[in-house]
Design a protein that fits this description.
By secondary structure, the chain is α+β, with helices and mostly antiparallel strands. The protein contains 7 helices and 5 strands.
């Protein structure tokens, strides 16, 4: 909602700025500003636009900020775990939610139970809930999604695959299937053998 209000204000200020550049003498007359100072209006408009862009940028950063939301745990049976929402991504009618799991118990049963409970409470529509135990693994995994060149992907895999695989604990898909350490696959073990 805040984003929408700021967007409307930004559009209004830009509209005023454009019209004032074309008719600054009329605005100066209306505001009883001497004609020699009519550029003051343009400067005020430019400063207003800069301030609105800064406010818009800050509001976007605040909504993306990593935060723990304990209110999402209300009503969960035996909810004794802590987590942080690292990010959310919407794709059409479904989305992805990325969680940093802060507990020591990383057994499959614990991760499966926690992920399913959180998914029920966080995802209002179809979503896949991803669970990491290291924020850097999450960041690297998102970088991997942006790689398009084969050579870059091979380089990323050599540098980061094992690390991400060790810290990507699992996910619950849109179809409610659970995968535990999904990146510990044939490639993971092949890279492990080469390193040893």
């Amino acid at each position: 909602m805040l984003f929408f209000i700021i967007f409307i204000l930004l559009c209004a200020v830009q509209f005023l700025f454009i019209t004032n550049l074309k008719k600054s003498h009329k605005t100066a007359d209306f505001l009883h500003i001497p004609h020699k100072n009519k550029h003051v209006i343009s400067i005020i408009c430019i400063i207003s636009i800069i301030i609105l862009y800064i406010v818009l940028f800050i509001s976007v950063i605040e909504t993306q900020k990593v935060r723990t939301d304990p209110t999402l745990l209300k009503g969960l049976k035996n909810a004794k775990y802590t987590y942080t929402i690292l990010g959310k991504k919407n794709i059409g009618t479904s989305g992805d939610v990325y969680i940093l799991y802060d507990e020591k118990d990383k057994a499959m049963k614990a991760i499966n139970s926690m992920a399913r409970n959180l998914k029920k409470n966080i995802c209002k529509e179809l979503c896949t809930l991803h669970v990491y135990d290291d924020k850097n693994a999450y960041v690297l995994d998102l970088q991997r999604l942006l790689i398009t060149a084969t050579a870059d992907m091979e380089l990323w895999n050599r540098k980061n695959y094992v690390f991400v695989a060790n810290h990507y604990l699992g996910y619950v898909s849109t179809k409610d299937t659970f995968a535990y350490y999904p990146y510990k696959d044939w490639y993971y073990y092949a890279v492990q053998v080469k390193r040893n």
